[in-house]
Amino acid sequence: MADVETQTVICEIWSHSHAPPLHPPASVAFDLRKVPNPPKHVRDQYDGRSKRLSEHLLHGAVFVGLLERAAKEITQAINAIFSESLNRDAPGITTSSDHVSHDNVLPDADSSGDLTAADSVSSGCTNGPTVSDSGILDRSLVPVMNSRHPRVRHEPALQPLCDENLDSKEDPLSDSGEVVSGRSSGEEPKSDQVLRISCFCERGRHRSVAFAEELGRTLNKMPGTRSFQVVVRVQHRDVEVKSRDSGRMRRGGRGKSRVLGAAIVADQAELQDL
């Protein structure tokens, strides 16, 4: 097989509340609302970024099973993106599961000892990339699905949108921190594809946040290859917004107290002058 330029897939993992939905929509979504909540006193003190809260969830079979299912499904989606990249770069190369070199494909999540569990469950996630039951297209993968993609031939709903968005580009980068698998910190990715992942619960502060954090750690354990690498970015939509709002409220509260204090001192001075 001829040498293939190193491909990079950026996995954007977002935690958020059920409403409003994530925008732009994700390719893969995981519903955490059926996962049992941690005790109220834990939720009152910590959000999903807390080690104590995540440890509580990791003792639950439903949470762990969904985490393993998510890792396996995302691995399959990443491999599909890489196979399509090979088709684009080398149209004469067959990239079915029977012919792709193992040096170029990430191992299935369930083949790793770190991801195996007896209590795996299948509820709570939606498959991707595809057209959902509600008819909503997984738009973040449209640039990947050109007219040669087998999904386009078998799912006519993809064809008109595929041709329209074939040359579209989306800036996948953000200001948040990243977890990188398979490349050194000084190496810039050569070709990027984006896989947008949604993790949502009722309020977007506890279960979904912990799930996104753990999923990011799990995906970061995936080995890079000579032709393929994965960049993982984890962002918390509603936790970060609430933190900023709380900071503004605290600053406003202190300022108001100072103004009221000055008014009281002025009133006392006027009384003394009478």
UniProtKB/TrEMBL annotation:
<dbReference type="Pfam" id="PF22740">
    <property type="entry name" value="PapZ_C"/>
</dbReference>
<feature type="compositionally biased region" description="Polar residues">
    <location>
        <begin position="119"/>
        <end position="133"/>
    </location>
</feature>
<feature type="region of interest" description="Disordered">
    <location>
        <begin position="93"/>
        <end position="136"/>
    </location>
</feature>
<protein>
    <recommendedName>
        <fullName>RapZ C-terminal domain-containing protein</fullName>
    </recommendedName>
</protein>
<feature type="region of interest" description="Disordered">
    <location>
        <begin position="150"/>
        <end position="189"/>
    </location>
</feature>
<feature type="compositionally biased region" description="Low complexity">
    <location>
        <begin position="174"/>
        <end position="184"/>
    </location>
</feature>
<dbReference type="InterPro" id="IPR053931">
    <property type="entry name" value="RapZ_C"/>
</dbReference>
<feature type="domain" description="RapZ C-terminal">
    <location>
        <begin position="190"/>
        <end position="240"/>
    </location>
</feature>
